[in-house]
């Protein structure tokens, strides 16, 4: 796991003179938004019939949602018909299958501690985009030496491009495991 504080020098390249505490707070916000928009923190978990299907969630994270569920034969189950999902991340199966695999994602909590351990792959792969996200919000702070509303928009667009890129990567990784459905044409 990686610390978000390792990205503070990248934020300072974009916002000269920013205080470390401000930079870290805005990095945490950028990390939260990045994870929520990209669905990058995807997980999968297998359960047997009759097991309590409570999804495992990392520390300082919350349940984000279920992407899809596969039965023992690898067929995709229909949400609302074959299974239901609670807000807390419990999957209730309404169909009869000996085992099932749940593909889901998690998101960071709103209030993260300063020594929070972020996903190392995400930090190393998307460090510049996270720094752009932090810089975009820092530059909107009024009456500071790093305030620049116009340049803030540039960094915001870069940040959005970054989480869209991560979203495509996450969806492509999920699609490799998702079975294809035959289409019905009328």
Characterize the structure shown.
Helices cover 38% and strands 20% of the residues. The chain is an alpha+beta fold and 186 residues long. The strands form three sheets. A three-stranded antiparallel sheet has the order 2-6-3. It is elongated, with a radius of gyration of 20 Å. The model has no long low-confidence stretch (mean pLDDT 90).
Structural class computed from helices and strand pairing = alpha+beta
Q: Strands of the biggest beta sheet: in what spatial order?
A: 2-6-3
**What gap, in angstroms, lies between the N and C termini?**
50 Å
Q: Whole-number average pLDDT?
A: 90
Shape: elongated
Residue fraction in strands: 15-25%
Q: What share of the residues lie within helices?
A: 25-40%
- Give the SSE string: EHHEEEEEEHHH
The count of strands amounts to 7
Main beta sheet strand tally, sense and closure: 3 strands, antiparallel
């Amino acid at each position: 796991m990686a610390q978000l504080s390792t990205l503070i020098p990248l934020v300072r390249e974009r916002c000269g003179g920013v205080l470390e505490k401000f930079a870290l707070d805005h990095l945490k916000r950028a990390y939260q938004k990045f994870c929520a928009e990209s669905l990058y923190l995807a997980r999968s978990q297998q359960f047997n019939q009759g097991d309590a299907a409570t999804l495992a969630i990392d520390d300082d994270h919350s349940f984000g949602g279920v992407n899809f569920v596969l039965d023992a034969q690898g067929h995709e189950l229909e949400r609302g018909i074959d299974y239901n999902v609670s807000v807390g991340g419990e999957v209730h199966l309404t169909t009869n299958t000996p085992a099932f695999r749940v593909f889901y994602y998690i998101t960071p909590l709103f209030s993260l501690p300063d020594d929070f351990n972020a996903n190392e792959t995400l930090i190393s792969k998307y460090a510049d985009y996270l720094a752009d996200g932090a810089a975009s919000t820092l530059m909107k702070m009024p009456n500071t030496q790093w305030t620049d509303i116009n340049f803030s928009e540039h960094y915001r667009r870069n940040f959005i491009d970054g989480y869209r890129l991560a979203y495509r990567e996450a969806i492509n990784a999920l699609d490799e495991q998702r079975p294809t459905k035959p289409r019905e044409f009328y």
